[in-house]
Amino acid sequence: MKLINIVCSGDFHAQIDLDLINSLNNPLFTYVRKKYHGGYFHISHGKATIYASGKYIIYGLKNIEDINPSFDELCEFLSPHIDVSEVTPPKIQNIVGMERFPQEIDLNKIVNSMQFEQCEYEPEQFPGLIIHLKDCTALIFKSGKVILPGGKSIEGLERCWNHLKGKILNVLSG
């Protein structure tokens, strides 16, 4: 499974003066109060949004192994302004994966043949079939591409994919 995005968040447990940090003119930090109430910090593997309340979100990661180095980089950047010993480590909020069927998918056939409780297909509104599963949501496109947002773990995403793949290949072969 290819990971497209990992989002995690936590708390610095301190107020952060975004105007002060912005005044230091670090090229990796952007804060425009009139546009958004959070500051953006570019880290090696993604980005982080930092809020004055002390909350943070790290996103754009492609590997679970990138979470801790990205978090460490963010803490190092803010260490002159906060007590890093008080920081809550990042917790995964969302993992988005991508898979692909080896052929085009007849979405109408899937909708008519499968008994998913949480299934949405409105091709006039969105070109994909949306199936809500236990551990994630699946967006299935005619091309065979499947986007799996909403995962909390890679194992959960893989369970969703294997369950979905089995059912859909069974319908397509039958």
Question: TL;DR of this structure?
Answer:
This protein is of the alpha+beta class and 174 residues long.
Please write out the topology:
Layout: E1 2-11, H1 18-23, E2 29-30, E3 38-43, E4 46-51, E5 55-61, H2 67-78, E6 91-100, H3 107-113, E7 119-120, E8 128-132, E9 137-141, E10 145-151, H4 154-173
Antiparallel strand pairs: 1-5, 1-6, 2-3, 3-4, 4-5, 6-10, 7-8, 8-9, 9-10
Overview of this protein structure:
By secondary structure, this protein is an alpha+beta fold. The chain folds into two domains: 2-93, 2-Layer Sandwich (TATA-Binding Protein), CATH 3.30.310; 101-173, TATA-Binding Protein (2-Layer Sandwich). Helix content is 26%, strand content 34%. It contains four helices and ten strands. It has helices at 18-23, 67-78, 107-113, 154-173; strands at 2-11, 29-30, 38-43, 46-51, 55-61, 91-100, 119-120, 128-132, 137-141, 145-151. A ten-stranded antiparallel sheet has the order 2-3-4-5-1-6-10-9-8-7. Strand 7 and strand 8 form a beta hairpin. The mean pLDDT is 93.
